[in-house]
Amino acid sequence: MRILRNSERIPYLCKIMTTDMKKTVILGSLCTIAIACGSPKSDNPICIHTAPVPVAPDATNGDEHLYTITFNDLDFFAAGEVIKKFYDVNEARPAGCSSVRNGKYYGRNLDYYINRNADFVITTPAAKDRYASIGMSADYPLCLKESVDNGTLTEEDYAAIAYYMTDGINEKGVAINGNVVPCGECTRTTGTNPGAPTVVTNGVVRYVLDHAASVDDAIDLLKGINIMVPSMEKFPFEEHWMISDPTKTVCVEIWNNELVVVDDNVMTNFYVSHPDTEMGIGHERYELLKAHLDEGSSVDGMHRLMKRVWYSNAYSTKTDPLWYSDNLEDGCGFTWSDIKAGNVESAYAIIQESELQYGSLEYQKSIRTAKEWYTTHSIVYDLEEKTMSLIAQENETVWKFRL
Fold first, then answer.
1. pLDDT band at residue 20 using 50, 70 and 90 as cut-offs
2. Sequence-ordered list of residues with C-beta below 8 angstroms from that of 308, at least 6 positions apart, any chain
3. Alpha-carbon span 352 to 389, nearest angstrom
């Protein structure tokens, strides 16, 4: 199978093939004309990008929320201030996520509320002091699909999209994604390196993709900046990151305002450096990924592995193990200590109730009330070939991209 390079400048929808697993759509270049964000007369635009192009404008069940865009330039720290200002006045909503690495394949699910947001496949070409990269920006709250379609997004909105990357891979084969972890007394990040240039947690993925040539390089880079949450009042959770290159994988967390590096190839939404704390969810997803790790030894195999932890499974009594920790909420009547002790009767009752309320994923997509969750995107990155294989919103179509 030949995957088309963006540089070949051919029409965006190139070929549709049928594989044993799913329908696969191969994409080439989507747009070649760069425009400035906001007014083209701006002397100092925050970013310069191509016009966003819908991947599947006539699709159903979610692919029509997916766009591609190329950022040729970005004022990184100015874009970070946009994010921080947004969360100074708006409430952030947490997300669940799973990531795993096996051999040259890096799998990543982003889980979030079923919503009307637009999601972007972002390509960034190499420039001075910046590596080329491709990855995702998903579920930024202001980027609704209708705002993209009617052209009402502002210069600052697009700058935020470029900065707010959830995962990606660069030309050196460095892949990274961020997962949410909860706040606590030991995890309220006010700054990891006061006095150094500040990067808010949402910007770490972009920063690493732009500058890291290896996992060790990424760790050194993160030690050299001041990482903090966007808003102490409006951002009620932290992030941790899994970073891989062709030879190494680590998880990077912040504890007591200090970076902690853990050798692990699976990460969900609890602190892998402190797994016995009460904080966090996704313990069952972690166990599933570890137990079936060998399945992820090919692109299709890694997609099957990641499908085991698509988030709609949280509402099912048919999973093994049941996702008790993902149903932990304030006032739910059980704790992580209860789960570890096997006291799960009340937890099982909550999952049963959730299963009835959730109904089908197709129904939840049709109403999009932002109450229930699903997997916004599931991606397999090939660390050697620098490709990404994407499934949007728990659909059956696989979209393939290459740097």
1. very low
2. 288, 289, 292
3. 33
Band the pLDDT of 31: cuts 50, 70, 90: very low
Integer Cα distance of 389 and 373 in angstroms: 22
**Residue 290 to residues 6, 261, 279: CA-CA distances in angstroms?**
35, 19, 20
Q: What is the dihedral of CA 338, 260, 251, 169, to 10 degrees?
A: 140
Cα 138 from chain centroid (whole Å): 7
Distances, alpha carbon 15 to alpha carbons 3, 12, 57, in Å:
10, 9, 16
Question: What are the CA-CA distances from residue 91 to residues 142, 233, 234, 287 (Å)?
Answer: 12, 9, 5, 31
β pairing state of 105-113 and 373-382: antiparallel
Is residue 310 within 8 Å of residue 394, measured between CB atoms?
Answer: yes
Q: How confident is the model at residue 28 (pLDDT cuts 50, 70, 90)?
A: very low
3-state DSSP assignment of residue 364: helix
C-alpha to C-alpha distance for 186 and 183, rounded to whole angstroms: 8
Q: Which residues pair with 96 in a beta bridge?
A: 111
Q: Please say whether the dihedral angle defined by the alpha carbons of residues 104, 199, 78 and 213, taken in this order, is positive or negative.
A: negative
DSSP 51: P
Instruction: Tell me which residue has tokens 């070649």.
Output: 32
Name beta bridge partners: 67.
54, 120
* Residue 339, number of CB atoms within 10 A of its CB: 19
Evaluate if residue 263 carries a pLDDT over 50.
Answer: yes
Residue with tokens 């009460």: 278
Tell me if 380 sits within 8 A of 391, measured CB to CB.
Answer: no
Q: For residue 184, what pLDDT is reported?
A: 65
Three-state helix/strand/coil letters over 17-31: EECCCCEEEEECCCC
**Reported pTM:** 0.89
CB 283 within 8 Å of CB 269: no
Question: Which domains, and CATH codes, for the chain?
Answer: 6-402 (3.60.60.10)
How high is the pLDDT of residue 388?
Answer: 98
29 pLDDT higher than 60: no
- The Cα 254–Cα 265 span in angstroms is 17
DSSP 285-323: HHHHHHHTGGGGSSHHHHHHHHHTT-GGGGG-SSSSS--
Site of tokens 């947001």: 117
